[in-house]
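User: structure tokens for this one?
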Amino acid sequence: MGWSADDVTRAELERRIFSLESGSVRAYPAFYTDQTYAREQLEAITIALADLPGGSKWIFFTLPKGSLATPGGPTEDEREEGNARTPLEALSHGDFEAVMVAAAGYYER
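Assistant:
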């Protein structure tokens, strides 16, 4: 991402990114560096998830949600696999607003 350690610390304090911890190791999701996604959108969604723990944020981004199902109904291939999408899949198809709505609902639970 081209960020310094201070940039990463600042972004985490501002809740624009999150980390996962295991023992003394802190890891940041690789999707923040993946050019498939607009980092500004990822950061906005992470901010919407506010003070949830990093593990809960990871679950939000990576588990399929029926509320993010492919618009217009499932295709034959999607019926075979199920049509729920992860927020990351939805973002890769330009469905930022739907992911923001899902994030707000997830946070409120």
